[in-house]
Amino acid sequence: MSWYVYRNHTVEPLFAKLPDVVLGGYEDVSEPLPGNVDTAFWFYSYPFDCEASLVVERIEYYGQQLRMIVESIPDATTFCLFTMTGQYLSLSEDGNFSIHNAINNYNDQLIELASTRSNIKVLDLSRFLDRYPAEARTDWKYFYMSQMQISPLLAGDFRIWLDGRLRAIQSKRKKCLVLDLDNTLWGGVLGEDGKEGVKLSNNYPGSCFRDFQKLIKEAAGQGVILALCSKNNEPEVWDCFATHPDMVLKKDDLSSHRVNWSDKATNLREIADELNIGVDSLVFIDDSPQERALVEMAMPEVVVPAFPDKPYKLREFFLQVFDEHFSIYQLTDEDRKKTGQYQDNARRVTAGKGFSSLEDFIRTLDIRVEMSSADSFNIPRIAQMTQKTNQFNLTTQRYTESDIQKFVDAGAWVVCAAVKDKFGDSGITVAAIVEMDGQRANLDSFLLSCRILGRKIEFAIAKRIFNEMFDRGCRQISARYIPTAKNMQTESFLENFGFQVTGGDDGVKEYRLQMQEKFSIEDYYSMELDSSERRYQEHNV
Amino acid sequence: MSDVFETAELPDNIEQSSFELWDSVQHLNLIVELEQKFSVDFEPEEIAEMTSLERIESTIRAKVA
């Protein structure tokens, strides 16, 4: 199985444990899906901008990105779209309302897309997040440290939930729910308390058990097979089923039963045989830790959920068990009906604001690159970038602040850049070190933070740097690619600009470029370089 | 630590700078596990400092004491 995740924030804790998974760049829809991806996820989280109007705009932008990329997902790839859930962090009610609307429109689009193609599925993230109190869903510490919008503490639970949803999508649901009786379907022990004494009624705790039975009955209505496995005397059991006024489940609801004093593992095997299903499609529910442990040990293929310690937790328990093992994926008729109304709107939207190409997208982002030569203010950040940037880094040279200063003092051009677009400012996320020697220059370092990738901006910035070097009289640039475990994506980067490989071994590539003219840069990037020109001249006078 | 990095073999005093599997994402995974296991809360400043087994031990000890 191989997986790909389109995302707009840090989701590594949630997805990194999937075998063979690739996480795309942030908001990056510029690359085609790698070949052989079985399942792709679209996991865009509510954008935590501070202004409501920006949030709304960004959510709409995400919808447009999705509509653009969905065309390129092959039919054989399952494309799972996560719905967006909101936290309404705006200070104004109007703001919150408009965000709420934007989120609903976005989710409607997901449902519409899922109804048009059978390989597109919608996963309702709120079903997972709603299990947790609002303050537990985002851990702000981790958000500010690493843009994790969902608390990493929920990662373990998320993986279990996702697993259940994927099994539902692949129709790998379990088939049969095997139930114990005492302290499971009612409170107390039938053999000791008698049918009048067991807790099953309209009052606490009997009401908890009654509701538990109701949920089980509903599950049966959705195709789950029910079986009974209890250490009791049969006549008493059927008498209770038939005559207890609050029994919801009836003998007829059960497709198989083993009510005896033998061990439960043997009984489960017989139930599976009788129903002609594998033991690996059984889910065994029993309040007794000893019985559960025995079955777990004797029959590891059987799912044995941990039974809750309090009757009032039974409902939540059952919903989770059902979600994980029995739910099937389906769009309801209602969902489909909604899309009929939506389709007209959608056609209007795509006609008016359709993006036919990546270039159109990039243009609307209003990207401005502000480049600054090294000075006492940005040298610390430049040094830090050389130490921390691992992926988009041609040579991975690690420098301290004084190393950078030495470069500057020796006449090298050290430059950094911040990238702004209509949604915000990335801060200084580019650094380059160019050693200058008359007509010759050496590109010692070129690195970018992954955050700004996805808009082909690395090409524009590189070109601008080479153009600056050309302006300063340089005609020959040497450079190197030094491979590490993390920077494979830059392996052939320089070759895009005409750099020729002139040597190198052990994976290292030595490059040279003869520059005859400047590069032309697409007009939808706006590039600014500060007064470095003046500083250069000052230095050389 | 073994679980987070999914390897049984760990050098004695391992440091983030010298252990390749210990990147920034794994660092946070490690922190999350430690927070849950020891029922403590680390501040971002402390998290940035906890880059070797030694420093992790001393930070936790100070918190739990």
Key attributes of the depicted protein:
heterodimer, A: 541 residues, nine-stranded mixed beta sheet, five-stranded parallel beta sheet, 18 strands, 40% helix, elongated, B: 65 residues, mainly alpha
What does this structure look like?
The complex is a heterodimer of chains A (541) and B (65). Chain A has 541 residues and is an alpha/beta fold. Chain A is 40% helix and 20% strand. In chain A, α3 packs across α14, α8 runs parallel beside α10 (234-243) and α16 crosses α17 (401-409). The longest helix of chain A has 24 residues, at 93-116. Residues 338-354 and 532-541 of chain A have low confidence and may be disordered. Chain B is mainly alpha-helical. Chain B has helices at residues 2-5, 24-38, 44-49, 53-64. The longest helix of chain B is centred in the middle third of the chain and has 15 residues, at 24-38. Chain B is globular. The interface between A and B is medium-sized, with 16 and 12 residues.
Outline the secondary-structure elements.
The complex is a heterodimer of chains A (541) and B (65).
Chain A lengths: L2 E5 L4 H4 L5 E6 L12 E5 L8 H19 L7 E5 L10 H24 L3 E4 L1 H5 L4 H4 L2 H7 L8 H15 L6 E4 L10 H8 L8 H16 L3 E6 L3 H10 L10 E6 L4 H12 L6 E4 L3 H10 L15 H12 L7 H21 L4 H8 L1 E7 L5 H10 L3 E2 L7 H9 L3 E9 L2 E14 L2 E9 L8 H15 L4 E6 L18 E4 L5 E6 L10 E5 L2 H9 L1
Parallel strand pairs in A: 1-2, 1-3, 3-4, 4-5, 6-7, 6-9, 7-8, 10-18, 14-15
Antiparallel strand pairs in A: 10-12, 11-14, 12-13, 13-14, 15-17, 16-17
Helix pairs in contact in A: 2-3, 3-14, 8-10, 9-13, 16-17
Chain B lengths: L1 H4 L18 H15 L5 H6 L3 H12 L1
